Amino acid sequence: MKKVIYVALLCFCAQSGFSAHTFDLKSIVSGEYQTKRVPAFLPMNDGEHYTQRSKDKTMIIKYSYKTGQAVDTLFNVASARECPFKTFDGYSMSADEKKILLYADAEPVYRRSFKAVYYTFEIRRNLVKPLSDKPGKQQIATFSPNGRMVAFVRDNNIYLKKLDYGTESAITSDGVKNKILNGIPDWVYEEEFSVVSTLSWSPDNTTLAFVKTDETDVPEYSIQMFEGECPSLTPYAYYPGEFVYKYPVAGTKNSKVAVFTYTVETRAVKKMNVPVDGDSYIPRIRFTQNPDQLAVMTLNRNQNDFRMFLTNPKSGVSKLLIQDKNETWIDPDIMDYITFYPSGFIFASEKSGFRHLYHYNMSGTLIRQITRGNWDVTAYYGQDAKGYYYYESAAESPLCRAVYRVDNKGNIVKISTQKGYNQAHFNPACTYFVNEYSNAVTPPVVTVHNSQGKQLRIIEENSKLKNLPFSRKEFFTFKNESGEILNGYIMKPENFISGKKYPVVMVQYSGPGSQMVLDKWAAIDWTQYLTDNGYIVACVDGRGTGGRGTAFSRSIYCKMGILEAQDQIAAARYLGSLGYVDSSNIAIWGWSFGGYTTLMSMSMSSGVFKSGVAIAPVTDWRYYDTVYTERYMRTPQENNDGYIQTSPLKKAADLDGKLLIISGTADDNVHYLNTLQYSEALVQANKQFEMQIYTNRNHSIYGCNTRYHLYTRVYDFLQRNLK
C-alpha cells in the first residue's frame, strides 16, 4: 500500500471540548435528538410572500419573506364552511391563488405515492367541498392552470372535475390493478425515477397529457403478510395473506408506456407518436410554455441515451429537441434540472466529465454553457428577471455545498455565506431563498435571504442540540491500493485516550452517486451510542460515490460492488495502521446497498473484518429491479460475468468474519428473498451466521418498538463479536 495522507479537509471546522455525557439508545431511537425541521414553504406569485401549513395541521398561513410576520390566514378548519375534517395532511394552490386543494386521511401506496381524500376550497367563499362524491380515495389531484378544473386518478383511471359546474367525468376507463395505470407510474418508475405523477396540463387549459402504463406482462411478485403486532393484521391470524404487485427483476420485461392527450372541449383521447422503441423509458412529460409543445423525455433501456422530444398534442407528431449520450449511464435526476423559459430551456449534462448547466433555445441550439469547471453542479434553482442563474455546487470541495449565482458572461458570485453544507429553496422569481446550513459540528440553521445572499432573519437554529457532547467527525484522506485518494471521517469516544487501542465500526452506504462523508450535520444517531460505549466509528466514501465527477463515479460500470468493496477493505487496512486502532477488531455495517457492500467486503478479504452487519441487503443483482440494476450493470443477458463476479451469493463460501443479517419480511424494495437465498448459500457452505427477521416490516424496518429492538440487537452482536 502506498503512503497514506492524513489531513483535515478545508471545509472542516474545529470543535471545542464537552463535559461527560452518555446518550441513551432508546432516547436516540425515539427521536429526542432529532433536528427541528421547518414546514414546507409554498411561494406565492408576488415574490414577497409564501404560505405554510401550521404545525397542528389546521391552518394555511400567509407570511412575509422579508419580516417573517403572518399577514393572513388563508384557511382554517375551525372557521371554514362545511369543513368535514379536523386536520389535513397537505395542500396545493391554483395558479391564480384563489383556490386550494387540500387532502386528508392519506395512506401510502409505495415509497412516495399515496391515496387521500381531496377537497377543494374557494378562499373568497370560505367553502370546503369534496373533490369527488364517488367512493374511493384519489391520487395526484392537479389544478388546471386557470384553476377551474382538477384532474385526478382513482383506481388507475383519470377523472376530470370541472369546478364551475361541479361535474366529474372519466377520461380513461381501462385502468386495472396490476395491469393498466393511467397518469400514475408503476412501482419501478416511482422507486427509481422518483416520479408519482405523469399528468401535465397545457398552459392554455385545453389539453391534459398523460402516460399510460401497461404492466400486464411484468412478472408479479407476492409478499406474504402475517398477523404480527403494531399493527395487528387480524385476517391473517391463522393463514398468511399476500400483497401482490408487479416487480421486474433485471433482464425481465418492463411495463409498456405510451403518451396520450385528452382534449377538454371534444373529450378526444389521442395517442402521441413518440419515436422510441418498445423497451424505452418515458420518465417525464411536461408542457413547455407553448401549448403546442409537450416535452417528452425518454431513456433507452440501457439508460445511456437521453432524448427529449417536442410533441404536438393535436397532431401527435414528435420532433427531437435534444439528445445526450454517455458511454456508461445518464443520471435520471438531470430531468429535474430541465426548466423551460420563453427564450429556451436549461439543461444539465455530464458530457465534460462534471455536471454543468447549459442554456438552449427551443430549436435545440446551444445559446451558452452557464457553468464550467472541475466540479459538479448539484442543483439548479432558477433564473431571475435580471438574467442571473442560481444553482448549488460542490466547487469548494466534494464535502461541501454552496449556493451561487452566475450572469450571462460567466461571472460567478457565491451567495451562501458559510462553508459547510448549504441547501436553498428559492421562490420562482428568485427574489428570496430559504437556506438550510449545517456543518459537521453545527446543527441545521434555517435562514431567509434576498437574492444577493443578505440574511434577513433566522427561522430555526436547533439551539437545543448545539451544546450536546456528541462525538465530532474528524475528516481524513488516504490512498487506496490503486492510488485513488478517498475521503473519510472518524468519530472517537469522548474520553478518548491516546495510546489505547479501540475497536472500530465502519459505517457506509457506498451506492452509486451517494455521499456519506460530508461536512454536514449527520444527526445524533446510534453511532453516538457506539462512541459513548468505547467504539471508534469510521466512514469512507469509495469509488462510485458522488461529488467528484464522472471518472470517479462511473469507474464501477458493469462491475458494481467490486471496487466499492475493495475500497472498504483498503479503508479497514488503513484504519488498522493507526496507532489507536485495534486492527483485529474492525467491523463493517451497512443498510440496503450498504448491506450488500458489507457482504462483498467480508467475502473479498480475509482477516480484515472480525464481524459485519448487513441490513436489507441485495445478495445478487439478478434479484433487483430492472431500472436501477441495468443502469449500472446492463442486463444479465449482456453482462453475465459481471453479475456473477458481483454476487455475494456466489461468494458465500468466502465469507470471513462473524455475520448478522437483518431483513423485514414485507420489504417491497429489496425482497426478503435476498436474505433467504443467501442464508441457504451460507448453510450449504457450512458458514455459521446470525439472523434477525422483522415481521411485516418494509425496507425501512420501523414501527413501534422495532427500531429500538434492531439497534439493541446490532449493539449486542457487536459487543459479543467485536469488543
UniProtKB/TrEMBL annotation:
An MF annotation (GO) of this entry: dipeptidyl-peptidase activity
Residues spanning the signal sequence: 1-19
InterPro entries referenced in this protein's UniProt entry, alphabetically: AB_hydrolase_fold, Peptidase_S9_cat, Peptidase_S9B_N, Serine_Prot_S9B/DPPIV
Coiled-coil residue spans: none
Domain named Dipeptidylpeptidase IV N-terminal: residues: 94-444
Cited Pfam families: DPPIV_N (PF00930), Peptidase_S9 (PF00326)
UniProt keyword terms in alphabetical order: Glycoprotein, Signal
Stretches assigned to the Peptidase S9 prolyl oligopeptidase catalytic domain: 527-723
GO term, biological process aspect, one: proteolysis
Name of this protein: Dipeptidyl-peptidase-4
Species for this entry: Coprobacter fastidiosus NSB1 = JCM 33896
Species classification: Bacteria, Pseudomonadati, Bacteroidota, Bacteroidia, Bacteroidales
